[in-house]
Design a protein that fits this description.
It is a single chain. This protein has helices at about 10-20, 25-30, 30-50, 60-70, 75-105, 110-125, 130-145, 150-175, 180-205, 210-240, 240-265, 270-300, 325-350, 350-355. It is mainly alpha-helical. The chain has 2 domains: about 5-175, no CATH class; about 180-355, Methane Monooxygenase Hydroxylase, Chain G, domain 1 (Up-down Bundle). Helix 7 packs across helix 8, helix 9 (about 180-205) packs parallel to helix 11 and helix 12 (about 270-300) runs parallel beside helix 13 (about 325-350). It is elongated and about 95 Å long. The relative contact order is 0.10.
Length: about 350
């Protein structure tokens, strides 16, 4: 899959930079890229603030670490930078007002009371929506005003340093951006491949290892948790609604639950029913497997054609040939097939957005 950036580069430079522009490689080496990006950002911050002899320049580097240090995904960085900027402006304004009243009234006790009241208000707002902004506002009050004894010029320089740190963090977030969408795509593809393996084992393995299947279910649960944590950033990066991502997440959760029920309710294989079941369910098993692998490859390689329909289920037409004790299992298989098909359609609807 070619990234949008690479389409604007000369062919020679595109070949040289291909390893860096490849989403799969960026996902695989995300930690190394993030560490290098933070290190380069800090070098830039130090060089800039010391080069122009900016007072209290260390606050720019501290801010850069706060904004970008623990956030590798582009969508997260933009959100945190915006919140940091707003919190900084609020805190800087309050801090400067405290410094001004201190320089006018020269009553330290009044400054302490005002700082405590301002921080109490921030703490009240910090529990709930906008809590990060409120917390940063309180921190910035102390950065700018100290205990009220800082000079107005110092307060202004510190506020400027914090904003410079935010700007540098945003600049480096655009350098080889580690989109949350990449992680979401590859983790979802991993979950789909695992579903394909589990369903094939349930449908074809007479001596199904329940313990191994349970371990796979636990791993799937962990992947769902990771996918959910990525969704807010993915929604911002590719401009899709949380409702669309929630529908995909819900489809995966229901499908995994159905696989667990399918394994628990599957009748025992015997020589008489095995051939009948293989004849009736074999084609459906292959269809479901092809659909899951196709979705996984579409997510991994960006080949949207893999999301095309895989034909209709033939189980209902063959219902009379299926032994009665397998009726429940067949009904669950039909439901599972429908869930996977709905998931395929949801991915196809927003493919032009996540295929970056």
């Amino acid at each position: 899959m070619t990234s949008p950036l690479s389409t604007h580069l000369p062919p020679v430079l595109r070949r040289v930079l291909r390893p860096l522009l490849d989403p799969a490689r960026r996902y695989r080496y995300a930690r190394q890229i993030h560490a290098a990006r933070v290190a380069l950002g800090l070098l830039t911050s130090i060089a800039l603030t010391t080069g122009i002899h900016l007072p209290h320049g260390e606050w720019a580097s501290i801010t850069l670490l706060v904004v970008i240090g623990g956030l590798q995904h582009h969508g997260n960085i933009r959100k945190k930078a915006a919140e940091r900027a707003l919190g900084t402006l609020i805190g800087a304004g309050a801090g400067l007002l405290i410094i001004l009243q201190q320089s006018y009234f020269h009553v330290p006790l009044l400054s302490y009371v005002l700082i405590v009241i301002a921080c109490a208000i921030c703490a009240y707002q910090a529990i709930g929506k906008g809590g990060y902004i409120a917390l940063l506002s309180a921190i910035t009050i102390f950065i700018v005003a100290g205990h009220g004894e800082n000079a107005v010029a110092d307060g202004l320089w510190r506020a400027a340093d914090v904003l410079i740190g935010i700007a540098i963090a945003l600049l480096f977030s655009f350098a080889l951006p580690l989109h949350a969408t990449y992680s979401w795509r590859y983790k979802l593809a991993e979950a789909l491949r695992s579903c394909a393996r589990m369903h094939t084992a349930i449908a074809t393995d007479a001596a199904l290892d329940k313990a191994e299947l349970q371990r796979a279910m636990v791993l799937q649960g962990g992947l769902l948790v990771q996918l959910r944590s990525l969704m807010p950033s993915v929604a911002k990066e590719i401009n899709v609604s949380m409702e669309q991502l929630e529908a995909i997440q819900h489809g995966m959760r229901v499908s995994i639950s159905l696989l667990e029920v399918l394994a628990a309710t599957r009748p025992c294989f015997d020589d008489e029913s095995r051939a009948v079941i293989q004849e009736c369910l074999g084609e459906e098993t292959r269809r479901i497997s092809a659909m899951l692998i196709g979705m996984a490859r579409a997510l991994t390689h960006g080949v949207v054609a893999r999301l095309e329909p895989r034909g209709d289920s033939q189980l209902e037409r063959m219902a009379e040939a299926i032994p009665a004790q397998w009726a429940g299992y067949v009904s669950l298989t039909l439901r599972l097939s429908g869930e996977f098909d709905a998931l395929r359609q949801r991915l196809s609807e927003i493919a032009q957005r996540w295929n970056i």
